[in-house]
Amino acid sequence: MKKAIWSLLRFFGVAGIVQLCLKSGLKEDGWFRSFDARASIDANGKPIAWYCYTFIKFLGDRLTKEMTIFEYGAGNSTFWYAERVKNVHSVEHDKDWYEDLSKKIPQNVSIKYVDLVANQRGYIENIKENQIFYDIIIVDGRRRNDCVMFGIDYLTPKGVLILDNSEREDYIPAKKFLTEKGFKSLDFVGMPPSSAHNSQTSVYYRSENILGI
Q1: What is the pLDDT of residues 48-71, one digit of tens each?
Q2: What is the strand order of the sheet 87-92 is part of?
């Protein structure tokens, strides 16, 4: 009976879809739940970074409570990082999104709103506001090329920079700049939560780095 059902499903070309829903890596990672919710969450409904799952797993095992992070662009990743590191500082250009996130952030997170239209340089240069160096800088907001080029001066000697959606041609200047500055790169490609397309995230690092690459 079971073989007959699967034969029928294969005949109609839907066997693979059914299998993915019943038992698969996507189901275990919570992709279907995130897709239905239109939010970056895991199988338990908890916030998760909006990277491809391979990078989430790679990075999650390497984060520690001694690390400090800066994000260009806040979101569910902010909460995911907050559970795993010492402090998270973010800058956000979307006022409504900022106000929503500000009501929920834990004590080890600070988010600053900067109007990108009125104060573009203020957004790019917000990273210098706390006058500290960061173990990880995430570039996942607006003006990414400018944020990369300005932000790397605020990395610790072993710090790394994460550039999301690095497959986009728009970010070639940032990638070239980092390579010329002596950074190596490691690319991760795959489906992220709630989206059906592949996306690439790249981590840029020096030989001695905090992630042990």
Answers
A1: 999 999 999 999 999 999 999 999
A2: 109-113, 87-92, 68-72, 134-139, 155-164, 199-205, 184-190
Catalogue all structural domains in the chain, each as residue range(s) with its CATH number.
Answer: 1-38 (no CATH), 50-205 (3.40.50.150)
pTM: 0.91
**Are 129 and 150 in contact, with CB atoms under 8 Å apart?**
no
Alpha helix (H) residue ranges in 103-140: 120-124
Name the amino acid, one letter, at 126: N
CA distances, 76 to each of 35, 41, 48, 57, 120 (Å): 14, 8, 6, 16, 24
DSSP 154: G
The mean pLDDT value of the chain amounts to: 90
Structure tokens at 207: 């030989």
Nearest to 193 by CA among 75, 74, 29: 29
For residue 18, count other CB atoms closer than 10 A to its CB.
12
**How remote is the C-alpha of 161 from its chain's centroid?**
11
What's phi and psi for 72, nearest 5 deg? -90, 100
Helices (runs of H) and strands (runs of E) counted in the chain:
10, 7
Residue 186 to residues 55, 58, 139, 173, Cα–Cα distance (Å): 10, 11, 15, 17
